[in-house]
Amino acid sequence: MAECHPVGFQWVMEAKARGATLIHVDPRFTRTSALADVYVPLRAGSDIAFLGGIVRYVIEHEKYFRDYVLAYTNAATIVTEEFRDTEDLDGVFSGLDPETRTYDFATWRYEGTRVPPGPAGEQDQDREDRDSRFEAAATRKAARGEAHGAGGADVPGRARTDETLRHPRCVLQIVRRHFSRYTPEMVEEICGVPRATFLRVCELITSNSGRDRTTAFAYAVGWTQHTVGVQYIRTASILQSLLGNIGRPGGGILALRGHASIQGSTDIPTLFNLLPGYIPMPHALASRDLETFLRAEGTAKGYWGDMRSYVVSLLKAWWGDAADESTDFCFDHLPRLTGSHGTYDTVLAQLHGVCKGYFLMGENPAVGSINARLQRLGMANLDWLVVRDFSLIESATWWKDGPEIETGELRTEDIGTEVFFLPAAAHTEKSGSFTNTQRLLQWHGQAVEPAGDTRSDLWFTYHLGRRIREKLADAGYRARMNLDEDERAVDRDRPVLDLTWDYPTEGVQDEPEAEAVLAEINGRDAEGWPLSSYEQLAGDGSTTCGCWIYCGVHADGVNQADRRKPGQEQDWVAPEWGWAWPANRRILYNRASADPEGRPWSERKALLRWDAERRRWTGPDVPDFPATRPPDFRPGPDATGPDALAGDDPFIMQADGKAWLYAPAGVVDGPLPTHYEPQESPFTNALYGQQRNPVRQILDGDPEYLHPSDGDPGAEVFPYVTTTYRLTEHHTAGGMSRWLPYLSELQPEFFCEVSPELARERGLEHLGWATIISARNAIEARVLVTDRVPPIDVRGRRLHQIGLPYHWGPNGYSTGDAANELLHLVLDPNTHIQEAKALTVDIRPGRRPRGPALLALVSDYRRRAGITEQTGREM
Amino acid sequence: MTVSDHDPAAVFGHDPAAVFGHDPAAGAGYVPGHPPRMGFFTDTSVCIGCKACEVACKEWNAIPEDGLVLTGMSYDNSVRLSADTWRHVAFVEQRRPPVPWGPGGDGRDEPTDVDVLAVAALPTDTPGEWPGAATVTVPPDGPGAPGELRWLMASDVCKHCTHAACLDVCPTGSLFRTEFGTVVVQEDICNGCGYCVPACPYGVIDQRKGDGRAWKCTLCYDRIGDGLMPACAQACPTESIQYGPLDELRQRADARVERLRDAGVPEARLYGDSPDDGVGGAGAFFLLLDEPEVYGLPPDPVVTTRDLPDMWRHVAMAAGGLVGATALACLTGRRGRRP
Amino acid sequence: MGLPRWIRSWPVYRQLTGSDPAGLGKAVRSPRTEALRPRVSTADKVVKSVCPYCAVGCGQNVYVRDGKVTQIEGDPDSPISRGRLCPKGSATLQLTTGPARMSTVLYRRPYAVDWEPLDLDTAMDMIADRVISARLHGWQWEDEHGARVRRTLGVASLGGATLDNEENYLIKKLFTSLGAVQIENQARI
Fold it and tell me: Domain named 4Fe-4S Mo/W bis-MGD-type: which ranges (chain C) (predicted)?
């Protein structure tokens, strides 16, 4: 956190100054470790074993917050008899279909509930044929789990519970058995963390949790970029739920995100699987019409029960008058998914000649995406490419000076890709809002006009859309371009032509007014007045709203994201600075800060309380709960949506109002986190016969090579583990830092970090060069010999880890090879995110070969390791 | 000998406080009622090595880039204070021999630092075990405890000395004492003679290549004159760099040292805080967690003009220099600069 | 009075007649020094902004004079950052006003070995044409199982995550209406 979010780290330092203990767990000793009270180096890729060990400690020593756990989690809920744990099946759960490599959730459900309909649920019982099985698998592969963004899948029906927590099939007992072998000894064996250190961490965390104290977890992509990334976060969720650390001040699991509006870009997603506000993109198999879609994706209880209002209001915002009852609100205007269309699938679609045109807006995949060579080869197969950025990043110039030109794999004169480079405006040259890592929208005003041809992406997208719409509406153009050959051409172009696209523009460059777009996102009632809450949204077409969770950001016609009452004039919650979704709530699930009766768990950790006189929840934060619903409220048997939430159901986005220690549906790789080795690992799985996540995503048609893991012949050719990361002085793929002298001089070159022992083992010299090799590519880096990347003893062997900051590429002021050249495309099956944090490599002294010799080196390594197209792809 | 037990009489032959008091601005002609002496207290115990100070300083003062050199000195690639680096963050990786954590191995005896980079430089075929070439063990007491890696970070800056040799030797009046007691180069006066460079006991002031003039931290004289914080102090995420009236900073620093020592950090000490040290106390002083040399700071800095027999000769010299320089300015209209 | 102004401003005169006989401070202040004002105090306007790098969301003040950004620094009012910035945030002035910024459109023809200039208006028109054709090329009414998909796989987009919400909203809205599904951003990476 000190390394990548230094200004956020000031609050950690404040906490430290007030006596907080800071524990840092990381394979490398960073600037955060330097300030930590306890630093725990562990083997990259072993965190589930570490966290699972703490879960075991908490349960075995009965350190969980019993009242919280009983009232607010699903610990007491009983699971169906058919469920089989990884303990029973040597590392896989019941429901695994080895052929499609997907899980059927049916056996994971609560006893007494049905499997939810639709893509997240069971297969269609009437269609037991092979096709339907594959189709169901395909829907699960379409990142459905992520679509639940702010909540879990539906659990229709009434689950049985055992409040004594003794029933062998109650969730707490299942969790206990699942983690029973994650002992301190096992943690030491898998993670390389000495038992004493591990136990000290357990003691620190448990003694700092409960009624009077809370512990927070902060993480970043060190947890997400794994083939089991979602399950890393799930393990932390289980732990924090057991300890009663969610929805309370000083608690939580805090994602430290790395880009100014990366939270915003998932809320209003430029993501294939989502519509604004975490509404899933319709899937071809479960979304014939709006009703089917809502039945499949909504939940009976909680705020997802109102999904119809959110979806219809969105369709109204996009297609205006064309969206009404008679047109099914233009639901059919939405394209349908049939599987994963993530960014790595797109690269393969480029290589296969399906995807012909590509927009890169402020993104540099030639450096920043894994297997960077494959990214460039994909772009070399396009008809056209549009790059919008500040400078000539590698993704704009690979056709003339990219690494493949040097190796001879590509020849500039043979590359047919037409490339447009359009200079982009900076945040000082346009108005708009960023959503930061704590869900806070903050407005930035335009300070100056962009110079020359530089324009905002708002300008670009608006005017591109305007031109496309004009062309599609022009009969002459249609004839010239043969657009009407298909008899359904009108139907095909209807969604574009029906689109509401009439934003006011301003200034000499006809810049669309960003605040007008924000007003559309916020939504309007039937009279056109701005809405102030998503609770006002209607499913009958009388309201519009571009993103239901952002409803209220333009309440009263005022740009709430631009509120800037100085922090020093406000209390610690500072509710009048910017605007947080939803409804300006700053701590999510904050109903859990009070006990079931509505009293704070302790005065020290008070946030909300039920004011019986005023009959409402009060406190410094906006309640993340129906504001006037009393603690003793019990819904009627037929209640649905938010009305079905009891007065003590704090987890209002969950179908049962509870925090899930066990996920009965929705997480595609298991109801509980399980330690699996990374795709490429120098160790066999010490816990199970199943080596890797059995349902990790391996893309169809992926042309790259994978390494053998421990136990397979050739594994020794790639004996070291590497992990990639950022440095304080640079930003991601470098587009906003490597061109700046003031940042470049602080970290002027790509380097690798190795321990003195590894340096000796491989003859690496401090400040000399090293070549790092995987089956995908080889790169060179200057060598920093340091104790900050300590060797780790794992299962009786000493493991060396190599640190690789991934900021560099051949362009810019500070240059170097891109670490992402080495990485592979095997992904987390829930999020389709790559495993950038743990893979195997070899390292040797000296610079890498130039030209075709580079390819020969990599292919020689593949040959020595006996790698074939099948290597590493077994389940 | 530590910084604070210097005998000032040995340096000046008399008590420096008697010459200037603790108010160097008064000694530079500012009448009573001038602002209090302002300075920096850099608390390295909370420095996270982010280098925001370096960049904020450069952006505010439009300082040229200082060259792209991977030094291998941990994460320090700006090396030292110079004409083009007015804030410099030092990174020191320290390792003590690993000790087994467990029964019988409390690891508390004879912690000896191992120079990681020296070890790295050994030929790869060096026989036998290297000193401490083993995994970092994690003792129960956190960073700094024996057997563990310690990564010290510290942001260095011009000390704005009470007795500023650079100022004493400047023949043009380019270097001057401000009403805040700080020492500043006037870029429209400096003729690039370079006398100040060897005069500085800390090696701070430096001539810019291709320009010749001397440059260093101004303690953001333009900003503080308008009641603003210096750029580095404003940017510093963890308040490692604190700006304020020097008296107040010294009190704050004393309290901080005491608190750290109470919390089991006996090595916490102040550097440059004492008016009795070789430069009469620094306007920018530091809380360190090790000996000054570890951070590249001189252990006993002494104002280099201490041997001048008496102050009047010094004054005469300065005045003479001024006459000469000013006469030259009148003749040429603009002082020549060294290439 | 009496003495010419230039003599009175002569440092030696000030040194010999004033309170700073040693010429260490007051007497030697130069005209530039006397006139020194911080450029943040002489700005025409201060625009409230947010740091464009990571997601902490530090407040920034953008100072503008004569239509140019002259300084960007932390906003002390922000309850998130309290006026502080990291090295990247502190480099925002160089990011936005530095010479590395491109300001003209560049175009590379198929098989060409170098860039050529292109007018922005022409570029926009060409891109619109290409979107229309690539969309058509990759158009699908049904998938291989006959399910209605009504989409194109011909056009894809990958965005950074330092874009504004309003920008992302228009991108998602336009591209979805075109039938594109391969719309992605840094959040997946």
Answer: 44-100
Task: For residue A498, give the 3-state DSSP assignment.
Answer: helix
Quick one: average pLDDT of B246-253? 97
Write down the pLDDT at residue A654: 87
Mean pLDDT for A548-561 is 98
CATH architecture label of C45-97? Single Sheet (2.20)
Instruction: Using the structure block, give the residue that is written with the tokens 């007051």.
Output: C26
Residues of chain B numbered 176-195 and touching chain A (CB < 8 Å): none
- ipTM of the assembly? 0.95
The amino acid present at A538, given as its one-letter code, is A
Query: Which residue of C30, C73, C91 is in closest CB contact with B186?
Result: C30
Residue numbers of the domain that contains A833: 715-864
Block residue for tokens 């409230």: C48
Classify A847 as helix, strand or coil: coil
Cα torsion through A371, A376, A381, A383, rounded to 10:
130
HSE of B97, CA atoms in CB hemisphere, 13 A? 13
Domain B26-93+153-332: which topology? Answer: Alpha-Beta Plaits (3.30.70)
Q: State the number of CA atoms in the 13 A half-sphere of A578 facing the CB.
A: 30
Alpha-carbon Rg for chain B in angstroms: 22
- List strand residue ranges (DSSP E) for A78-178, in order: 96-97, 102-103
In chain B, what are the domain boundaries?
26-93+153-332, 97-147
Q: Which residue has the tokens 């800060």?
A: A593
pLDDT-derived band at A173, boundaries 50, 70, 90: very high
Poorest-confidence range of A136-150, A512-526, A710-724, A846-860? A136-150
- Per-residue pLDDT, C182: 96
Taking the C-alpha atoms of residue B63 and residue A260, their distance in angstroms, rounded to an integer, is 27
Residue A729 inside a domain? The answer is yes
- Which residues, other chains included, contact A127 with Cβ-Cβ below 8 Å and sequence gap of 6+? none
Domain count within chain A: 2
Q: Please report whether residue A701 resides in a domain.
A: no
Between CA B168 and CA A745 the distance in angstroms is 33
Alpha-carbon gap: B193 to the closest alpha carbon of chain A (Å): 28
Which residue type is seen at A536? Q
- Per residue in A387-434, pLDDT (tens digit) is 999 999 999 999 999 999 999 999 999 999 999 999 999 999 999 999
> Looking at the domain assignment, is residue A270 inside a domain?
no
As given in the structure block, the two tokens for residue A665 are 């549906």
Residue of A nearest to C188 (CA): A833
Q: Quote the longest CA-to-CA distance of chain B.
A: 81
Note the pLDDT tens digit of each residue in A245-269: 999 999 999 999 999 999 999 999 9
Indicate which CATH number applies to the domain containing A732.
2.40.40.20
Residue spans of the domains in chain C: they are: 5-35, 45-97, 106-188
What's the whole-number mean pLDDT along residues C169-188?
Answer: 96
Could you tell me if A619 and A609 are in contact, meaning their C-beta atoms sit under 8 angstroms apart?
yes
DSSP state of A788: T
Partner residue facing B119 (CB), from A40, A747, A756: A756
Instruction: Give the HSE-up count for residue C98: Cα atoms under 13 Å, Cβ half-sphere.
Output: 23
Residue B227 buriedness (CB in 10 A; 0-12 / 13-18 / 19+)? exposed
DSSP bridge pairs for C185: C159
Mean per-residue pLDDT, B94-100: 57
In sequence order, the 6+-apart residues with CB closer than 8 A to the CB of A817 are A750, A779, A780, A781, A808, A809, A810, A848
Pairing of strands C148-159, A357-361: parallel
A332, A574, A742: residue with CB nearest C94: A742
HEC profile of B113-174: CEEHHHHHHCCCCCCCCCCCCCCCCCCCCCCCCCCCEEEEEEEEECCCECCCHHHHHCCCCC
Backbone angles phi, psi at B244, to 5 degrees: 170, -175
Domain-located, residue A317? no
